[in-house]
Structures are given as C-alpha cells and as structure tokens.
Model the fold of this input.
Amino acid sequence: MNGHIKKNKKRPGVFERLRKHVTSLTKRHPETGTTFVEILVTISIIAILMTTIAIAIIPWIVEAQKTTAKQHIGTFKVALQMYLAQNRSYPDQSEGLDSLKPYIQDGKIPKDPWGHEYIYMVPGPDGVDYGIQSYGPDGAEGGDDDITSWGLEANEEDDEP
Done:
C-alpha cells in the first residue's frame, strides 16, 4: 500500500460548531459580570410592568380621593347640624369650619385629599343655608371636578327611589 493511510477523522459539522459556540457564550467565568444590555433589558421589563400597574391603579386612586372629600363634607354637615342645635344658628363665614372642631371626633379640620382647605360659605348658593366646597384636584374654582355639599344633596335626591 501506499504510505498514505487516511485516517477517518470526522470534521465537526456546522451544527456541532454552532452548538459549541452557543455553549461557550452561555458559560460564564467567575470574573465576568452582568452586561449593560442585560441591565437595560431588566430595567425595560420593570418599567413596562410599573406602567401597566399604574394605568390600572390611577383611576382607583382618583375615585378614592373624591370619596374621601365627600365623606369629609358629610362629616362637616353632621357637625354643622350639631352646632345649629346647640347655638341656634350656623357659624358665620368669618368663624368658618374651625368652629366645628368640638363637634368632630379628633378635633381637627382636615384638608381635602389634594391638600387644599375646604371652602365654607354662609349663605350657600341657590338659597341653601350654607355651602361647603372642595375645588378638587386642580385647586381652582369651577369645573367638573369640584365637590360641593349642595352637589351631594342633589345626588342624594337622585339616588332615592
């Protein structure tokens, strides 16, 4: 025979080389850290989740703030009735809601949920004895977001059967 004996060495195929390459990419050495791209992907995923949660929760927060303002006004109305029973008149506008402190459980007049003072007026609009108003989230008079004692009374009449 000829002195050239071919040994059957199998050369690795494309798939075998690709597998080795991918395996080498996924193996980490103890010295390697987190890559910048991995950090960006993680931050992006967290941002997407937080945005989704915020979009779902914000309407609930707004409704809770409106409900809190309505409850405060309801508390003021009860305190005004107790004041009226004891003093035979409502407090005048200069006394304001501070005159109701003895009739409120903790003796503090709360601010509305947006951090503004409630407005007390005597006489109230449209011929009512008094009026209590929160200007709502924008803190400015007028608009659909104002919460008023006379508006609550109108809603209560609409709710009756």
About this structure: The chain is about 45% helix and 5% strand. The mean pLDDT is 83. The first helix runs from residue 14 to 26.
